[in-house]
Amino acid sequence: MLTAIEKKWxxxxxxxxxxxxxxxxxxxxxxxxxxxDLIKKNENPEPKRIREILSKxxxxxxxTPEEVAVLVNCKEPELVNELCETASYIKQEIYGKRIxxxxxxxxxxxxxxNCIYCGYRRSNPAIKRHTLTMDELRxxxxxxxxxxxxxxxxxxxxxxxxxxxxxxxxxxxxYETKEGRxxxxxxxxxxxxxxxxxxxxxxxxxxxxxxxxQETYHHETYKKLHPKDTLKSSFxxxxxxxxxAQEAGIDDVALGVLFGLYDWRFEVLGLLFHSLDMxxxxxxxxxTISFPRLKPAVNTPFSTSSPYxxxxxxxxxxxxxxxxxxxxxxxxxTAREAPELRKELIKVGVSQTDAGTRIAVGGYRQMQKxxxxxxxxxxxxxxxxxxxxxxxxxxxxxxxxxCTACYRCGRTGEHFMGxxxxxxxxxxxxxxxxxxxxxxLLDYASKRTKELGEKIITQYINDLFQIxxxxxxxxxEYLEKMEDGERDFYI
Length: 491
Ligand code: SAM
Ligand code: SF4
What we know:
The chain is α/β, with parallel strands linked by helices. The protein has helices spanning about 5-25, 30-40, 45-55, 65-70, 75-95, 135-145, 165-175, 195-205, 220-225, 235-240, 240-245, 265-280, 300-305, 310-325, 340-350, 385-395, 405-410, 415-420, 425-445, 445-465, 470-485; strands spanning about 100-105, 150-155, 185-190, 210, 255, 290, 330-335, 350-355, 400.
């Protein structure tokens, strides 16, 4: 049951959404029949056709919905291997060895919605509800930055306690919380859809990327999983949330699907159509795509019984197909997945991931507790510390990045997207990854991580000298200044 205050707030918002639905001129670009026709038409594709598409993907130009419909039907192990190899090749070409790290920061778990799959749904009595006060939020940020994080993804339920004003205040508080060298330099958020005016408010306080996941693109399933008396019941309000954010001047926006709610092949095409529509209207696609898999949540039977739960093999395929289809869009993997699998998936095409993750509201102050189920939206499978996670990355010769340079010097949205296309990303992002990783090594790393990390940086500089000596000298100069105590260098 909602309290009187919650009900009034919800009713007002419901009215606002209904008005919006009537006035919105944009056309729903998800045509369920068209998507199913594409999938059915391309069932059992010829190996030759799959190989043609993979060789086109290697040109880094992205794929059409028709081509993606062929790849979602790729089943033969040999061809699936080739698909994954192609995705790894694309990842290497565009992103190199770099992988961007962040921490999710759950700020509130109060919510007026009732999404069937989510532990935080309002009808779930098993959850202890809380919205962090600004003092508690500061403590969370201090706990996070004390282990080396520089980027967070702040996550919110949909509730009057965590409305746009609260979100803006939370973002400001996160940026302002500094202790010596410890600070957050980029705050991304995941929060329910808002109006253009509300987006302007959160843009003004310096939001990084704004994420909102459609959850499922299949209309019928969307309707079933989001009860009709809830704010989340409006498919269109959510579908155009990122369009409205762009209208408000938020350049970096991010898509996502909760895999496990409906047929994954349909959802992959839904993501592609969403991405294409944004490109059509704004000239730039999403900054990142997330592909969380449904995980068990306390007292949430659907989270373990959905008929569409995705296997590890199919999950790997999803990532490989997305890597081929939208080569310049960042792909985010989360700590929902287990360590061994993450290692494999990162190779296939992931460019960003969270580490040292705790998802209970207030969970970082109790870092030693891996799970606090009654405060969590779902359970995660990777609870390694940030340092343990980084050490494993280094064993695979990957370079962790805490870089926030693009956002801080205005290279976002269209400007950002212009960069990777000309392959310049390698000469901005990788040096910046190295510079921010060096900060981590100097200020936070364990002995073993520091030893291995320094070796990797030396190797990187030696390689860079061969191809870009001037850049290598600049990076080396910055690294030396860092040894002398200076910080926060970027190209
Ligand atoms: N309440 C906001 C909303 O719905 O837009 C913020 C998002 S919610 C806190 C973050 C995301 O977690 C959701 O968009 C959904 O994709 C995902 N999620 C919900 N239940 C989940 C579950 N059982 N397993 C894995 N992910 C889940
Ligand atoms: Fe609330 Fe978001 Fe969970 Fe739905 S997914 S119940 S909106 S927190």
